[in-house]
Design a protein that fits this description.
Keywords: Isomerase
Shape: globular
GO molecular function: catalytic activity, acting on RNA; pseudouridine synthase activity; RNA binding
Radius of gyration: 18 Å
Number of strands: 11
Pfam families: PseudoU_synth_2
Organism: Ancylomarina euxinus
InterPro entries: PsdUridine_synth_cat_dom_sf, PsdUridine_synth_RluA-like_CS, PsdUridine_synth_RsuA/RluA, RluA_PseudoU_synthase
Strand content: 25-35%
Number of domains: 1
Helix content: 10-25%
Number of helices: 4
CATH class: Alpha Beta
């Protein structure tokens, strides 16, 4: 977190939830670095192995009768790692969600192949079909506008390391946009067809800048790029 923001509360490690690294906590928000493979919230198949469940237990500090809660503000895909913020009050949740599109969201990804343009912006309208697969459509009335900025920072024979600025936050936006450019995110089991032998989805939420729901000050949180990404790009 940047130094010019309010001081970070000392984080207790006694109830540290597995699969999450606590980056920041105060009376209004809690920010974590989520590992790949952990859901943000419950699904039909999994109720407990989620960031929400783990943090709900964490804020109760071992007391089932505690009224402390966390509230979901946004999500990261199960296999995406990185910065994830939760609210600790409903008021904070609503503020963050209302302001979400104005916040700066930066990702790092390893993609298959090489982009023709090494820096640019991808835009489209994204729609979702009956089996929950997201794709681009030309008709603005049938999809939601999505805008992804990117810059290639390193290339190898097989992969490219890319810095991404997420202007909008649509479901599977980054994954779909790079897949449709012919360069799917490495390890993408849904949109990628070439990723053989990749251990995980190579997509990481590296930096998130928000306005604090109480102080209204700008705060930036960062999660280091996984070392595995650097191994892939060698």
């Amino acid at each position: 977190m940047e130094e010019n923001q309010q001081k970070t509360k000392k984080i207790s490690t006694k109830y540290q939830p597995k699969g999450l690294t606590l980056l920041y906590e105060d009376q209004d928000i809690i920010v974590v670095n989520k590992m790949s493979g952990l859901l943000t919230m419950a699904s039909d198949r999994e109720r407990e192995k989620t960031a929400y469940f783990l943090l709900s237990n964490y804020v109760k500090k071992g007391s089932p009768k505690s009224k402390n809660r966390v509230f979901i503000v946004h999500r990261l895909d199960k296999d995406t790692s990185g910065v994830l913020v939760f609210a600790k009050t409903e008021k904070a949740k609503f503020f963050l969600q209302d302001e979400w599109q104005s916040f700066s969201k930066k990702y790092v990804a390893v993609i298959e192949g090489k982009m023709r343009e090494k820096e640019g912006i991808i835009t489209s309208y994204l729609a979702e079909n009956s089996i929950h697969r997201v794709f681009s459509v030309r008709n603005a009335d049938k999809g939601k506008f999505a805008k992804t900025g990117y810059k290639v920072v390193k290339e190898s024979e097989r992969f490219s390391l890319v810095n991404i600025h997420l202007f909008t936050g649509r479901k599977n936006q980054i994954r779909v946009h790079f897949y449709e450019q012919g360069c799917p995110v490495a390890g993408d089991k849904i949109y990628g067809e070439k990723s053989v032998g990749i251990k995980r989805l190579a997509l990481h939420s590296a930096q998130l800048t928000i306005r604090h729901p109480h102080t209204k000050k700008e705060m930036t949180f960062e999660a280091n790029t996984p070392s595995y990404f650097k191994q892939l790009i060698k």
